[in-house]
């Protein structure tokens, strides 16, 4: 039986098998599979003691056999053998011994990163009737967004689409950090629906988050939202200018890139401009808002170049803008760019 690790947090493991295989190369999912399986075992038998043995350890075989042997106090054992792709001959033999004669007081959890190395042992564990948990790394973009939505639902909470996208954009493809952030959000946010404002509040002082939020509003031509996000960022952090201009420049390059590949598939566009495929639809919508207004889009590119110098203190020799002048230049950039209209 193969389970998806993504769903374990919501449903947990019902009754753990004597052998559980956490197979895949995503560390967070592997850790979760091991942790959840161990918790399910301890729920059945609180006396269960956890023993972890690396599969490549010199004395691993002897340690496994010792852990599988009954102890004086009659306690159960949760034996975790990590990275069985690198199992020594002794560990391989000890694990096959457990497959042949499982100890009644013991549960075995093994991890395997995937690939062909150690596959013979992995297949033997699979055919023994053990439960396999899929811990393969998630693909960037849509698959990860879907995982994050499931993660929020596992906390019996809900989140808006723009909020989960902002969270992903801010943290990047680090599943452990993303899961930790969601857990904290679900703990800290009192109301049920988690929104983009909650993401901004949670990441107060993290300028990159606000920068990309502002950028999306600018290229969506939503001036009110853009200015509101900018004012929030200014109140929350002293480091707003450079990250915001950088985010807007990145957004502009992506929008123009999409505009130049109108007939290409989303996948081809994503590869060409270096964004996840799931973002292309939104970028196409942004480009559509600028259709027939490319001269103003070009003017925005010039304004960005000027603002880049301004938020860094000025571009003229001897110039030195103070903090208020930098923020004024940033406000002017965001207000005029997001409010541009054709005709």
User: Any idea of the CATH class of the largest domain?
Assistant: Mainly Alpha
Number of domains: 3
> Major beta sheet, specifics?
6 strands, parallel
Question: Uncertain segments of ≥5 residues (pLDDT<50)?
Answer: 6-12
- Strand order of the biggest β-sheet: 1-6-2-5-4-3
Shape, per Cα inertia axes: elongated
State the CATH architecture of the largest domain: Up-down Bundle
What percent of residues adopt helix (DSSP H or I)? Answer: 55-70%
Number of strands: 8
CATH topology of the largest domain: Zinc Finger, Delta Prime, domain 3
* Cα separation of the termini: 63 Å
Report the C-alpha radius of gyration, rounded.
26 Å
Describe the protein's architecture and organization.
There is one protein chain. The protein is α/β, with parallel strands linked by helices and 343 residues long. It has three domains: 133 residues, Rossmann fold (3-Layer(aba) Sandwich); 65 residues, Helicase, Ruva Protein, domain 3; 137 residues, Zinc Finger, Delta Prime, domain 3 (Up-down Bundle), CATH 1.20.272.10. The protein has 16 helices and eight strands. The strands form two sheets. It has a six-stranded parallel beta sheet with strand order 1-6-2-5-4-3, sandwiched between helices. Strands 7-8 form a two-stranded parallel ribbon. The longest helix is centred in the last third of the chain and has 19 residues.
Which key features would you list for this structure?
single chain, 343 residues, alpha/beta, Rossmann fold, Helicase, Ruva Protein, domain 3, Zinc Finger, Delta Prime, domain 3, six-stranded parallel beta sheet, two-stranded parallel sheet, 8 strands, 10% strand
